[in-house]
Amino acid sequence: MKFGEKLIQLRRKEGMSQEQLAAEIGITRQSVSKWESGGSLR
After folding, report:
1. Of 1, 9, 14, 23, which is most buried by a Cβ count within 10 Å?
2. Any residues with CB less than 8 A from the CB of 10 and at least 6 apart, and which?
3. N- to C-terminal Cα separation, the chain
4. What's the average model confidence in pLDDT over 16-38?
């Protein structure tokens, strides 16, 4: 399982949106989206 797939799985298990996760860890929602799509791992 790739990082993005695992992130989606864990985020959904916790019932969090991309925006909620981003706010929790202090990044933008766009960054979470890129991680989940495999566009960027930075």
Report:
1. 23
2. none
3. 18
4. 96
Residue 42 lies in a domain: no
Scanning the chain, the segments in alpha helix (DSSP H) are 3-13, 18-25, 29-37
User: What are 4's two structure tokens?
Assistant: 């993005």
d(CA 36, CA 24): 16
Answer whether residue 1 shows pLDDT above 70: yes
Domains contained in the chain, number:
1
Cα gap 25→19, rounded to integer Å: 10
Residue 27 is part of which domain span?
3-37
pTM as predicted: 0.83
